[in-house]
Amino acid sequence: MIMESKTYPDITRIFSSLILLFAFQASFACGWYESAETSRLALFKSEREGFLKLHYFCYSANSYHEVSQVSNRDQELNCLEWQKKIGTNVSTADIYTILYETDSDKFQAAYKNHTLKQVFAKNTFIATLLRLKNKPFLDYLVFAKKLEYNNIPSSKWESWGSINSYQENVNTVAIGDYNQKILSAKDAFLKQRYAFLILRDRFYSSDKAEVISLYDTYFANNKNTILEPWALYYKALCIDDYPLQNYLLSKVFATCDDKTYAVMQHYNFKQTAATLRLAKNDEERNMILIIESMRNPAPDLNTMKQVYSLDSNSVYFSFLVQREINKLEDWIFTPKYSSNKIPAVSFNQMSWYDNYEKAKAENFNKDIFYLRELKQFLIDAHSKVSGEQKDFMASAISQLCFIDDEIDLGKKYVNMISVKANVSIQLQKNIQLALVALKQDNLKEKDTQNNLFNYFNAIEDLVQEDNSLLKNLYSLYRIASDEFSKQGDKTTAGLLFLKSNLKKEATDSWYYYTPSFYEYTGYFERYATLEDMDDLIALYQKEDKTPFEKYICAGTTAPDVNFYRDVKGTIAFRKNNLAIAYQVFASMPSNFWQKNYEYKNYLNEDPFVPKVLKKAKERKFNYRFNKAEFVAKLIELKKENTPTSNLLLAHAYFNVSYWGNSWMMLAYDWTSGGENYSDYVYGENNYDAEMKYQNSNYYRCTLAKMYYEKALKMSKNKEEKALASLMIFECNYYDYYRDFDISHEEQAAFKSGKEIVDFYSVYNTTKTFKQYNCPLLKAFIN
Amino acid sequence: MKRLIIILLFVVINSSGCDEKKEVVRSFCYWKTSAYFDKEEDSICKNLNVKHMYVRFFDVDWNPYTNEPLPVATISRMDFNESNLKITPSIFITNDVVLKASKDQLDSLAKKIQKRIKEIGLNYNKEKADKIASTIVYSNYEKQKVKKTLNLDSIKEIELAKLKSNFEEILIDCDWTEKSKDNYFYLLQQIKKEFKSSQLAATIRLWQYKYCEKAGVPPVDRGLLMCYNLSSPNDYKTKNSIGTSDELEKYITHSDYDLGLDIALPLYSWSVVFRGNQFKGIISDYEQFIKDTSRIKKIANNKYLLQDDVLIGQTYLRNGDEIRIEKISDEEIKKMISIIKNRIPFDNHTKVTFFSFDKKYIHDYGIKNISGYYAHFQ
Questions:
Q1: CATH of the domain at B40
Q2: Using the beta-carbon criterion (under 8 Å), do B70 and A160 form an inter-chain contact?
Q3: SS3 state at B264
Q4: Record's InterPro entries (chain B) (predicted)?
């Protein structure tokens, strides 16, 4: 079927090549890819005290949410237990230092050398432990630290015995007669602590029976310590009955912070009914449901209602509300604003691929319906709760209103948030006020812009303490960009779009990210008009920028105003407005196209020799291209209007098409098929816009053909006529095969036209014929 | 009289020989925990004509719990590809080790160091032999008309036997103090006994050079003078904590050091971030972000001011933060070399080494410039 592959190698080269251009794309060496979690939009981040232990389970496209801070509440409780035991004059901070911040090496060495007092001078815990009466407590600590030394996975010490890096002495300290240790401890506090250390040691030695026995003996009836849930965790993992294991793990989850992540990793999610049967009361039943809900990516209002009915002030309930709002944001916002165009987490993924657009519309309606149901439930609940929960609920309701574009009601609930609300709810208020301004106000007004600046800045100020806010900024700026675009301000929209991308990159990368030429200009080359470009250049050059303007320009404007001029000239050229294109390009440095972007690599051939007539080995890539000179030449050739000038014009228009060697006069990237980098970044295929470049010349060679026809008609020179005839055939050929689909049998056959017949008959004695004829080209004569 | 003239003439002719250009041994320090060269590194070595490399084999630190010196961060792999380099194994010993170890422990430490260097060396040779043998066995296999497979293990053994098992020189790096001097020098003597067929070298910091009477001169065959890290980076007032020629001049005050010296110069840079006058941290990968003129404004030759909020690694830098780039300029390095040249005697065996071998810094300074630094010693 692919006859042309043998007939004309230059032509087929274009079809067969699958080379994606540009160095900047190399960062996406495996295609245009970013993780679903990176793309996901999220704006709602209100929290309540107690959320910290649940951070791992925030809604995320990753298995677990990445956290930068973990709860140390359990450790603090342990310190309080020590303080209660050993004396209130000992500070819990000092206990914390010794228990959790002192390396075993350092402690052991100081103990051995009798220098504890000196090494830990001013530490009230050490000072108290060194009293004679506290010797049993010190002995315990020495024992605990000794065990710790043998269990530090990140120890730097190596062995002289081997040149491989591995830890010295791992598990070499014998635990000895541990029963004796527990029994000889006279104090119940110490007895339990020795029992815990030994229980943990037995766990790692896979001595399940002993772990269970130690728990039952020393913790089952004495739960008034943080060690109990820690010990229960190890016991649960020693039980082979999954529902019972789940049940015990749920109790661990409810009573401590330190093991929540570990519990979730071991919890068996296919045992719900059997686990629930073990629950002894509503509270236990609820905890099991909460754990299950925290891993549920689907709508889960029913569980929320159950949790709420038992305890309207429950922090778990609030956490589930946050998850639910983040789900809705993902389902509604991510397809709308992100590059991936589908939710980051799809719980019924397959349905998306059958008929994506249909499924998308159905899902949107379903999601909005669900949103309203959730919102109504929260509105009903709002009047019944108080304190922090009331503020949290108001924040949640207003967020749901904004997702649903119900701005007035949203505003009403924002205003209900008290001034005493916690930092995260206040922060949310800033995001919501920004959304109100973006949706309701005239974005051209200075006051609106200044308010927006203040809201943005308030969030930026908190990123220092919480990097995860970068996701909220990415989402907010993406929505803001869309709103400015809707109001016709492409300048601000484009800068905010880049700002949004910078925030997104920052969340996903440990490395500093500098925008490339195309990232500075891409939005504008796709969406801006000549007037928009004038506005952008004016803003760029404005000296007394407002705080808002300064902010949107910071980090988003190109290092050189000529980047924008190049886009402006290109837009004019796409409209075939040669006068403006020339004026703009002429105002730029003549070496701009040697020094910037990929021009040197892709705009480097003679634009007046059609690419299709050059064999691969004949091509020379050393042409010093100057866009201004090129456009000036076109203007001059048009004026001349001779057969030769029209032929040259035709060559030039052929070469600035997708099929030519100077496509970079019109486009910033090129691909042989499929989605290119630019489509990926801006989330839609640009083919329709490209089709309009220069009256369709870009894909269809319309202008080229017109000038070839003109040359053919005017010329009396056989060589020129032969060349024009051949090139008219080429233009027809490209136009036909532009969107040729080999699987589409009904497509009308290619009509090669009269010109190729003439080429083989009328002009078969010309030099041109001799140079370019090829036996199989003849096969096109139908 | 005639005879005297002839003698004088002879002296003049001969002494003019002293002015012959001396070519130093071009060297680098390799201080990472694994070494893997590819074509790019090979080409750097080739273009710079690098003949020698100080390679950090492992560190020794004092384990306070077991009360003994233990090895730390041993190099996990050494593959210098096609680069044919003479290697000096380098061992960093913390001052704590020499301060706290008993005489018996130092005796034992010397033996352990010798054994470990030997083991790492043997491993290195084995990998090298393995590579050579694979090339011999497999590279021409496809081209052979009659396929003959050589025995890989036999070739490996033959190639391993060809490789030298001893290093010509061992370097011990320790920032010894007046207090630890005696123990350290004792350790060096013990190490020297363990390496009968190798030269022993020790690093000499600038203060140890300047105050050699107090610091003593280590009992080794050569010294490696480290001409960098002269002040603390967290001081806002410091011009450049890596070093300046002015500071270097204050340390290299004499030419009377009782040891032949090789020279180590810095070839790295970093940026130090200050908020207000407060030190916020060090960022080594700064090259890319300072190019971003829309977010970063140059306020002085080596200072930049942030004009936007950016996240670099885990540091969220804010608008208004100041970044001080610490890098010794081309001109400064040349000045430093002149100071060294004027004070420190050198010959064709003197090694001039740069700390450290890292593509990023080498490209930053440029092959041509670095080559010029070596040539500047001529």
A1: 3.20.20
A2: yes
A3: strand
A4: GH (IPR017853)
Question: Quick one: which H or E segment has residue B324?
Answer: strand B322-327
CB proximity B278 to A under 8 Å: no
Inter-chain touch A157–B308, beta carbons under 8 Å: no
User: Which positions ≥6 away from A672 have C-beta within 8 Å?
Assistant: A14, A15, A17, A18, A19, A20
**The Cα angle at residue B197 between residues B194 and B202, in degrees rounded to 5:** 65
Those residues with Cβ within 8 angstroms of residue A510's Cβ, 6 or more apart along the chain or in another chain: B313, B314
Instruction: For residue A172, give how far its alpha carbon lies from the nearest alpha carbon of chain B (Å).
Output: 13
For chain A, say whether B119 makes contact (Cβ under 8 Å).
Answer: yes
- Whether residue B338 lies inside any domain: the answer is yes
| Of A209, A275, A203, A217, the residue nearest A246 (C-alpha) | A275
- Structure pTM? 0.72
Does the beta-carbon distance from A156 to B72 stay under 8 Å?
Answer: yes
Mean pLDDT of residues grouped by 10 in chain A (782 residues)? 31 29 32 77 95 95 86 96 96 96 88 93 96 95 83 72 63 60 89 93 88 95 95 96 97 96 93 95 95 92 95 96 96 87 65 63 90 97 95 97 94 94 93 92 93 92 82 95 95 96 75 81 96 97 94 92 98 98 98 94 95 88 96 98 97 96 95 75 86 95 97 96 96 84 66 89 94 79 66
In a domain, B83, yes or no: yes
**B312 belongs to a structural domain:** no
Interface of A with B (CB under 8 A): 104-106, 108-110, 112, 149, 156-160, 163-165, 168-169, 460, 463-464, 467, 470, 506, 510-512, 514-515, 553-559
Number of structural domains, chain B? Answer: 1
Nearest to A157 among B63, B292, B308 (CB): B63
The CA distance from A163 to the nearest CA of chain B, in Å, is 7
Mutate which of A155, A158, A170, A511 to disrupt the B interface (most B C-beta within 10 Å)? A158
Closest C-alpha among B257, B276, B139 to residue B206: B257
Parent domain of B238: 22-268+328-376
Tokens of A496: 């905010």
The β-bridge partners of B225 are B204, B263
Contacts of B352 (CB under 8 A, 6+ apart): B24, B25, B26, B27, B262, B263, B265, B373, B374, B377
Q: A645: which 2 tokens?
A: 């000038």
Q: Does the ipTM surpass 0.85?
A: no
Domain membership of residue B193 (yes or no) is yes
Closest-CA distance, A134 to chain B, in angstroms, reads 23
- Cβ of residue B289 closer than 8 Å to a chain A Cβ: yes
